Amino acid sequence: MPGRSALAQPEATHTCAQHGAETPGPLVETSPRIVIVGAGFGGLTCALALHRAAAVLTLIDQHNFHLFQPLLYQVAAAALSPADIAMPIRRILHRQRNSRVILGRVAAIDRGSRQVYLGGVAQAFPYDYLVVATGARQAYFGHGDWEPFAPGLKGIDDATAIRGRVLEAFEKAEAETNPDERQRLLSFVIIGAGSTGVELAGAIAELAKAELAMTYRSIHGQCARIVLVEAGEQILPAFTPSVALQATRSLERLGVEVRTGAKVESCDAGGIIAAGQRIDARTLVWAAGVQASPAAQWLAVRADQAGRVHVEPDLSLPGDPDVFVIGDSAVASWRNGRNVPGIAPAAKQEGAYVADLLLRRLSGRPAPPPFRYRHQGDLVSIGRKSAVLDFGGLELSGWLAWLLWGAVHIFFLIGFRNRTLVAMNWLWSYWTHEPGAGLITRPPCHGINDTSNGSTTPQQRA
């Protein structure tokens, strides 16, 4: 082990005189140093699995919370509040005495001196082992100028901004007297029909149906227009054609217009042009692709077209066995020429694998076999009563699939409080048709087509 001769011992504890609580003492600085960058699914899973590691663990993230991204679209559609799907990282790791949490954004990584540098922080963080799990942000395929008009959905700020746009569109439509402009305000376009796009389209359709029927007067009974645009020939390209067809029918029952084979050619404040046709809408959401974080740039290695780093079978960096890249920032081989998909279960499996490898290495045991991804199936919700699932040989759609989808997502949420709140919100919404968090939290009085404050800068997890 370079630069280290001793393994960590359990650190001493002391008791807080005021509260009588036992708290961890100082970490042993002669121990091996493990730095994890990113507290998403991969990074946090790795950190938690290292709770008994004889090492000093440092977890760095640009946010102070772990976000359950699969339910982020429900924040954007006013079904859940941000606090329902996020938890402070320190609270998650507060019993883990070998770890510390650092809030900051990575500026550079020097693999020669084994240091991680954060922007605006004079201190560097040395490592013996480094795990980079910094996720991805939305990609506009060379059309970055579309971003102000069609914000993506990757973080809480994105979700609350989109929620503000959707709800503000209803508010402006209520006061609008021009029927053509009112229809533009009540039109919503989601670009990209992967899991995020499909779930968001269904959620906005449900929200519009409930809100316009229950709480507005001038636009009471008027129909919103929700258009889901996909450049490919089917929605949900990761699913089988039969499951994608079931999802399409479920969306159409909710009133969503599904347009496949419609590549977007331009975006502006008033709508889009796709496959040569103009679709007027004041609210656009981008769900068409992702770009990896700058991990390749930090590590000074080549990346693929999506910015992802190619890794060895043990998820380490080629030529540097002490540096690992996991999650959406990595390209790892799977089977039949395919790569491990960029989904939460894959990131968690990679995080657990790297943790096991490090535990074995620290204790002098043999390394595990190469990483092998185990696909557990795909689940997508469509509104409040329907979902589709594909578990290899098992395909299911409808209400039963929706119940299973809900159970799986509640189970994987971190913390009893979050599980309880989400379950209660879903039950309340199911029986009353009321949204759970219909607040406009961005600055008011900005027009729908005013892009100065209408979107947030996408944040890659760091």
Describe this protein's structure.
- This protein has 462 residues and is of the alpha/beta class.
- It folds into two domains: 139 residues, 3-Layer(bba) Sandwich (FAD/NAD(P)-binding domain); 194 residues, FAD/NAD(P)-binding domain (3-Layer(bba) Sandwich), CATH 3.50.50.
- Helix content is 29%, strand content 24%.
- It contains eleven helices and 27 strands.
- The strands form nine sheets. It has a six-stranded mixed sheet, covered by helices on one side. The protein has a four-stranded parallel sheet with strand order 15-14-13-19.
- A hairpin with a 2-residue loop joins strand 16 and strand 17.
- It is elongated, with a radius of gyration of 23 Å.
- The N terminus and C terminus are likely disordered.
